[in-house]
Each structure stands twice: as structure tokens, then as C-alpha cells.
Amino acid sequence: MPVKHLPYILIVDDHEVNLEILENIIGKLKVKLVRAVSGTEALQKTKRIKLALAIIDVKMPGMNGYELAEKLNSEKPGEKIPIIFLTANQTDEIEIGKGYSLGAVDYIFKPVNAHFLKSKIGVFLDLFNQNTTILKDAALLKKSADKMSRVIAALKKSDERYRNYVNNAPDGVFVTDETGKFLEVNRALCRITGYSRDELLTRSLPELLPEESLSKGLAKFVKDLKSGQIKAELQFMHKNGSRRWWTLDAVILSKNHFLYFTKDIPDYKRVNEALWDTDLQMERIIKGANVGAMEWNVQSGETLFNEEFANILGYTHAGLEDVIGISRGWAPDELFSHPDEKIKTLEKLERHFSGEWPYYDNELRIKHKDGHWMWVNDRARVITRTDDGKPLIMSGTRTNITERKEAEEALRESEETIAESQRIAHIGSWKWDIQSDTIRFSKEMYNVYGISPARFDGGFKSLNEFLHPDDVELFNNKIKASMSGANPSPFEYRVIHKDGSVHNLYAEVRIEFDRSGIPVTSIGTVQDITERKIAEKEKNVLEQLQQLTQYTEKARENERAAISRELHDDLGQALTAVKIDLGMIRSSVSDQGVVSQINKVTALVSDTIKTVQRITSNLRPDIIYDLGLETAIEWYTKQYAERYGKEVILELDPAISFSSEDSLTLFRIMQESLTNVARHSEATRVIIALCKEGDKVIFCISDNGIGITDSQRNAKNSFGIISMNERAASLQAKFDVSSKKGGGTVIKLMIPLKNQQA
Asked: What does pTM read for this prediction?
């Protein structure tokens, strides 16, 4: 199990006693504390640490809390460190705004409420852990997806190569189940049997065999089944009614699936039948056959072979005689066989010579004249023995089986590739023979279901044992619907593994019907999507956090509106009344000294009224609700231009209007943009434009300053940009910040036209 590292929390205060209090409060949480009594010490200790949270005292000598917050986030580009500021005094609106712009998520007043602080820390630790988990899962998902894409591409290429090879192989290649029913056939088998592919797929192998071949062939089939490889020479019925001979080689693919290779061998069988008859003229038969045939005198070493036997090795008859000589024994095996095959060949010859095997049958590699290794099948028999029973004359045939061996290898590689790709993607496959109620699982299917092959008996009803009880009915209804001829859509269900864990699966099913419309085979794939489900859940959590942010922002605006109303209605009216009363008192007083004092107080009250008006306007610009966004922008930018000495140009389409809430959101974005221009851009001119482009409303703020870099734009401590982006998301708008040619920054919102208010 991987080691889970504890998150770090930084606490900074210039008084040790305050640090002790904080440490006692936080010490019981599962975190690592980093203590510092100054901003310089805090920066030094956190250079190589990823912080989950920082708790910083605002008032510190040297470097204050705000300066430390700015340096922390500027020295850790790409990270956004949430900060809780500690203060002993009530903080004004400007100070609070400054703190939030530097990464503050909250203010806590001293003395610290332990329960309140621990509750807030718990929230940020949960967010930190969730973000860490999501980043790891995202990286893992991307890595898995990339690997899966590469494997699927390789699988597709391998499968196409295998399919092309098998379909174009000169020998017949086919697959049957345990009853002999044809499941896959290639073109060569259609040519050999005379039947089309569709005709063969409705038949079985026993249907093509005459009674005598069927009885002998099945007996041999059962006997050879134990060895894992079946070889036979059988008669079969051609579609035109004629009887023909073929060689039949088979290998076991699984418990109830078999792969066959066959070749139509009329000449081969004629030669072998003749070879077993010593009364026929061997030399004439051998030389006239179109398969490799030979006769070998075991005692003298004299070898007789035909032209085809030499051609298999790439020689002419005369050329091969020159190479091996007339008296070199079983020359092709001695001179041309692969070193790994020689011992096996001698062992098989000895077992045949001793009478243990009725005939010699061997597949081996031999070297072609051009130097490459090829596969051949030698079949031979001792037809004459000496008086004491020793072998004298041996005759047999040789056929080139290289293509068949390559087809076997291609099939094996294809199956291995499929199995590996399924393992990587957690995708299993299954095939259900509906008539026999037999299901065959791929290897990965057992892993997806969390079972061993011994636990599954292959019956359809047995699947219910592994399904989640709440999903049994869903699963069976989906399969029944597909068997009725409906085209079922992919569906999800759950299985319970042996260890009790619940896994989510994604399934697709396809049914194959016979010509009468009866379902015969069901094929399906199942993918374990448990990790994806977890990632989706975490994504939903992030979306909920974003919605919470938007809700919090609306709550803040409502709170600002409430404070603004109270300031305007209570304090503003009270101050106005005081000013009126002062005027009345002044008119009734003749003492110039007193009048002078009243005038000073009146001026102070007037300034206070203006301050209240300014604070009220900043908290809630009522002008937006009374006169609309365009007028509010004109009012604010006029004050901005006078305060900062910058030229502001407005290009506002008067036909465009928004709801009061959306107008307030755009107004706040403009405020944040102009604040950034004043602080960082060194610009002298700002252009604010509001216009229509197609199905979008464009709100653009550009300046002629020094511009913004990519690192500044993407830094996690760019809280102003993050705030604007969040506000834009609430409008379903696309938000972009970029530098323009010639210098300057452009902030652009593309708002769907449907958001515009008629």
C-alpha cells in the first residue's frame, strides 16, 4: 500500500505564545506543522514544501502578513496556497480586499476560537486531499488511456494481418466446437469442399464424412484428444457427391473449440496407398506423384525420391542427388534438419523401427536451398523387414506445412495480443452458445468478475451468482431483449467480487441468429469502469464546489447590498439630519468663534457623508439597478480616470442590455480588470468595448501597458484572473486573457447571446 504523506500547514506569528496556542489547537489533527516567527523564516522553511494551508498574523515587524502572502504565492508558481489571516483588530474594507487579492480565504480575529479554527482547517484539508487524489487519478487515467490506445492499434493491425493471412492461406483452415459445428472457415476450405462460407457455417464436420471415415475418425479423434494434437487422413464428401481424401491436423484452442488445417490430397493418398503395397512398381509411382515421395533402404542407405521431394528443398532432382549422394542414408534429415529437431527425429524413428508406432509421423524444420528454415511433415512406414525383424525398406511422403505453421503462430500471437489488450483495458469478452447453454470466458473476463475458472460452470444462470442482487433483473432483461431481435444499447451493472468489493461494469451484447431467426450465439464485452465511476464522482464534487463558490459570491453580493442599504438608510440619513441641525444651530448663534467651530463640524459631516456614499456605491452600485450597465460603466470609469490619471475610451453598444444580476457580474469583472491595470500594467489608456459578434456578445477590456506573460496568466496566485474566470463561468461565458501585439493586455468575455435581456 502506498505511503500517504501528511499535508503541511504553515503557522506564522512574531509572538511565541501565539504559536504555542495555534500548535495546541492544530496539533491533534493529522498534519505536519511548520512554525515561523517571521516572514523570512517562513519563506526559508517552505521552499521545498507543498502547503495545504497557511495561517499568518497580519501585523508583524519587518515583513507583514500581506507581504509574506504575496511572496509565498509568487515563489510557488502553479500553486494556489489558501491563507487565513489572523488579526487582533477590526479590518476595513480596503484591507480585507487586499487580503483576498493575495490569496486570503478568511479572516479570524484574536483571541482565536479553537473549535471555529479547527472546523475551517478541516474544510481546507479535505479540499487539499481531494485535489491531490484527483490529480493522481487524472495522470493515471491519461497514462492508461494512452497505453490502451497503442495496444488497440497494435491489436487491430495484428488482427487484420492474421485475418488476411488465414483467408488467403492455400490450405483449408477452420474452427469447430466440440460437436464439430463449423464456427470459422477460410476460402481454401470452401474451394476444397465445394461449399460456400454460409453453407459451411450451417453444417458440421461429421456431416461431410462418410460413415466409415466418421466411425474411424471419431475413434482416433477421442484417442488423440488426450495428447492435445489430432492428426488424421480421412475421406470426405465433396458437394458434387464425389469422395475425396484430405489430411486433417487439429489443435485444441480451449475446452470446446478446435483449430483445423486440411489439404485436399488425392495424389498424396494414391501414393501412400501404393507405398503400402509392395507389389506395385515403387519407382514409377514415386516419380509420377505431385507430392514429395521417397523410398529409403535402411541397410544400404540407398535413397529414391521424386522431383517434388527435391523441389520442396529448392533443388532439382539432379541437384539434390549431387548434394546428398546416392548412399547417404536418411539424407534430408541428416543434412538439412534444424539442430533442435535431430534428437526428436531419431527418437521417433527408433519408436517406429521397434514396432511401438505403426508409422513414422514427424513435423520438423529443414533448411531450404536459399538458407531459410521451413516446416515439413514427413509420414513414412517400414514396408519390408529382414528375416530377424530389422527394418529394411522404408517409404513415405513429405509435404510443406510452413504456411500452416505460420498461420498457427499468427493465431497464437493474435490471441496473446487480444488477451494482453483486454488485461490493460480491463475488458473481458464472452461467447454464449445458446443451444448448448455454454458460455466461454476470455481470461480477463474472470478478472472482471473477480472469480476463478473453477467457480464458473459455464451456464448462463450461474452468472446471477456473481451479480449485485439489485442488478440481476436488469441484466437478464437486457439479454432477453437482445434475444427477441431488439438492438440493445450498452448498459451498466454491478458484480460483487469474492472479497466483497462492488465493481461497476459496462457491457455491450450482440446476438447472432440462424436463417430461421432463431438466436444461436450471444457475444459480449464487459469493461470494469469502477475507477471511472470514482473519477466521475470526484468531478461532481468539483462541480459542486464551483457551484458553492458561485453561491458564496451571490451571498456576498446580497450581504454587501444589505450593508449598503443600512449605511444609506440609517447612517446616511442620520448624518444628513446632523448636517441640517448644525445649519439651524449656526443660524441662531452670533458668536463667530462658535460659528467657525460649527462650520468645521459641518464640513467634517459632509466629508463623512461622501465617504458613506462612496462605500455604499462600492458595496452595491445601485446605478446598475436604476440606469443599467452602460451608465454604471460611464460613472465608474469617470471616477477611475480622475483618480489614476488614465484615459478611458468607451465603445458600448446601447442596444445591448443584461439582467441586473448579470450586469453586476460584468461590472465586478470590469472593476477587477481596471484594478489590475492600475497596479501592474503601467498603461496610459484603457478601451472598454461591448458589442455583438454573431451569436455572442463580446465584452472586452484592453490597455496599452507592458502586457502579461504566460507564467503570470497561468500562476495559481493570480487571484484576480481566477476570480474573473469564476464570475465568467456563472454567465456561461468563455473567458480569455492575452497579450496583444505592440504591448498591452486584453481581457475578453464571449457571452452567449441568449443571456442578453430583451
From this structure: 0.34
